[in-house]
Amino acid sequence: MSKTLRIDGARLPGQESPLSVLVSDGRIKAVGAELTGAEAVQVIDAAGLTLMPGFVDLCCNLREPGNGQKGNIASETRAAARGGYTTVCASPDTSPVNDSGAVTHLVRDVARARSGIRVLPIGAATRGLSGELLSDMVGLKAAGCVAFSNGSRAMANARILRRCMAYARTFDLTLMLQPLNQALAADGYAHDGRVAARLGLLGVPEVAETAAVMEMLLLAEETGVRLHLGQLSCGRSVAMVAEARARGVTVSADVAMHQLLFTEEALSGFDSRYHVVPPLRSEADRKALLEGVESGVIDAIVSQHQPHDSAAKQAPLGVTEPGLSTVESVFSMGLTLVRRGELSFAALTRALTTGPASIIGQRSEIAEGAEASLGLWDLNGEWRARPDTIRSVGQHVPVPNEPLPGVLRWTIHGGEVVCRPD
Amino acid sequence: MTDIPEVPVLLDRLEQRLKDFLEEKGIDRPLLVGIRTGGVWLAEALHARLGLIEPWGELDISFYRDDFSRIGLNPRVTPSHLPFETEDRDLVLVDDVIMSGRTIRAAMNELFDYGRPSSISLVALIDLGERELPIQPDVAACPLKLPPHQRVKLTGPQPLAVEIREVRA
Amino acid sequence: MIPATDPVVLSAHDRASRNLQLTGDGQLRHFITLDGLDLVMLTDILDTADSFIEVGERTIKKVPLLRGRTVVNLFFESSTRTRSTFELAAKRLSADVLNLDISTSATSKGETLSDTLLNLEAMASDMFVVRHSQSGAPHFIAESVTPGVAIINAGDGRHAHPTQAMLDMLTIRQNKGSFEGLRVAIVGDILHSRVARSQIRALQTLGVAEVRLIAPGTLLPADAESLGCTIEYDMRRGMADLDVVIMLRLQKERMEGALLPSEREFYRLYGLDTEKLALAKPDCIVMHPGPINRGVEIESAVADGPQSVILNQVTNGIAIRMAVMSMAMSGQVADRAARVRAQEADQ
């Protein structure tokens, strides 16, 4: 007998009438109001809950392989499921770096055994992420890597970048690059703006990103590679991507959710929690990034989840490790923006589902015959991110102890319940 | 109600007793040092009455109090001002009210940081008793016994007046 | 905290700094930055320092305020000069002083800053005087050590050097009487200067008419205008109408990072010599936080001349440090009393 699951009483976003979803063999068999009588092994009463497609994250650090004190595939995918994600791309900056088929296989094997959701490895574009020697990208693809990135490290120079693109283009591989001119960024760790001026922080100028965006766009145009720009932070970058795309360059882009909610002001008081790469920038940049998501120039919102042990953040700002533990808070942060009228619900949903899915050749939808990967949310409920509510090893959440809108009740991936109410 | 004479009466009394005391001690060139705030007003008044030529000094004992660990630093501390050498001189310390004696201890500690005086005498307008240290005024104008809910304070500088206030327990 | 839609300029930082540094009833308990401290507080510090200047003129230059307290000089970046003035200030307050040169000990053995602090706390320290190469290190220390230890910032990264700025303010007040209407220029390496950042804040809070920053573009922070100062690249023009000119020290390594071509060119353009000083008001005073590079940022004849108040600055340094140390310790006393009261109320 096939495994069946029925969800009753859920609503699709913006719709009034409750409906049921019938899941069989991991797929959505039927969606409609008249299914309440259909037989199922398991029934979820989803009255008052909203049905969302499972989210897709293009940039998530699972910290495995690694020494484990910052998290592992089991802990961080559990956290991701709690955030409504059913597919996460595992960043290559693990220890060792995912620059060989062996590491890719390891990630996939561990994920198969310990993760309820889909883990898609991103391969390192250069060996050891050094930015100097190309990794065996074709071999990595065969092992299961869906795209290639250099983490948050820059290529050594434009010549290597150009060759990396040309090679990726030959084999139709997607390059996901975080644009950063390392010489301009130097030792900076904060936006080179008024907060850095006042607090004497080492600045990363906007041009450290925009110069790299321009260089990457020109090289992508020349080589014809499929380029995805990750974690944009500047308004100017969005405009440049839009302009390049209008010219026919194959380029997509994402932004980390925290860039849409916070600005450089978050570092007031030297709060190391908000030490992120790229840095949180000005209010004008934040507005432009929001517009980019709304208009679709920015295809995806990513979590850029970077769990750490507490010691990594317990130091003077400049010597702390960058990153936030975001994956459980992303949708709630997005709903905060929707409530304030800064982002539409449709754009938020698109940037968490179909937008990122299309970049890695996946699908994310609620339709008959589609994979049953879903989230059931109480959109009117509120929760607080605290040690007792957070499942990630990383406790440095973006919005600690404040009420956040949107409580995830259930996550279903491939027909299996992977997160249920506490 | 407690009955205290008016300040001019008290001052007359204080002046006379101080003169007698200095004469008895054979001190002919005393240096007056008032403890802020009330003591300074009194020192100024006595200075005029005694017709002294050398200036009087002002002492702010904030840095020498023994209750720093309980109440912290006086937020309105102003510099002490002793416009003379104290070495081998006869100092007359002037305060408005003496009670526990702790203020006087602090003031004497401070005076010794300026040098080694020949002697220090103590003048107080009102003596409340209740001593906690073996310190006694050489000259006082008026002893006074207050119930626990009352405090006495010299107000001034023009005119000088003694004020008795009720305090809540 | 979820930020508001339109964040007001640095108000969040000022609020955070005030809350960190002041007790519930507004007394100083740490002295880390001038951000968040108001005119009344800065004036209190200057007034208290005046009282300590008088103490410094006595035969015995010592008061018993911090008797039995332990002050630890935590210098993660070595500086004999600054450490000595803090040490002397603490000793004149009768505190016991422990000097730890952390730059060569704990951290080189791999011990984290947090571990070092926990160890020091166990020694029943009452106050840490902290110098660190990272901006914000004293903030971090104040937030992570248990309550009851006062943190005094002796210079952190490029962020702040508030005691240096306040002693400069004391020098200005002694020479000019008040801050009203003053035009003050800060000249040289503003970008890397923690002293300049604290001076700017102090001068603005104390209400001068103008703070002018005179430097080449490479030695100014990005968005320097947001500091609320006038920016001037031409020093000769920038000297006009000045009441006070503060020269900053130029580090030799600035030439290596291509921020400046040479010391010679810098001196010609931004060095204070007799000729440039003549363009300021005739009673303009010359200041320098030291140590001076003669012939790099200032001519000897000016540094030693009648308008120079550089030596007063040294005397004032001890008084200012005595003032903030005793005030912060006093705030800790008040804090402790408040905690005891809160505990009693709980029971």
UniProtKB/TrEMBL annotation, chain A:
Residues 50-233 form the Dihydroorotase catalytic domain. It holds the Pfam family DHOase. One of its GO terms (biological process) is purine nucleobase catabolic process. CDD domains: DHOase_IIa. GO terms for molecular function: allantoinase activity; dihydroorotase activity; metal ion binding. Keywords: Pyrimidine biosynthesis. Coiled coil: none annotated. InterPro entries: DHOase, DHOase/Allantoinase_Hydrolase, DHOase_cat, Metal-dep_hydrolase_composite, Metal_Hydrolase. It comes from the Bacteria. GO terms for cellular component: cytoplasm. This is Dihydroorotase. It comes from Marinobacter daqiaonensis.
From TrEMBL, chain B:
Residues 17-139 form the Phosphoribosyltransferase domain. Gene3D superfamilies: 3.40.50.2020. The keyword Transferase applies. One of its GO terms (molecular function) is glycosyltransferase activity. Keywords: Glycosyltransferase, Transferase. Pfam families: Pribosyltran. The keyword Repeat does not apply. InterPro entries: PRTase-like, PRTase_dom, PyrR_bifunctional. CDD domains: PRTases_typeI. This is Pyrimidine operon attenuation protein / uracil phosphoribosyltransferase. The lineage of its organism: Bacteria, Pseudomonadati, Pseudomonadota, Gammaproteobacteria, Pseudomonadales.
Automatic annotation (TrEMBL), chain C:
Carbamoyl phosphate binds at residues 81-82, 131, 161, 164, 290-291. It comes from the Bacteria. Pfam families: OTCace, OTCace_N. It catalyses: carbamoyl phosphate + L-aspartate = N-carbamoyl-L-aspartate + phosphate + H(+). Keywords: Pyrimidine biosynthesis, Transferase. GO terms for cellular component: cytosol. This is Aspartate carbamoyltransferase. It comes from Marinobacter daqiaonensis.
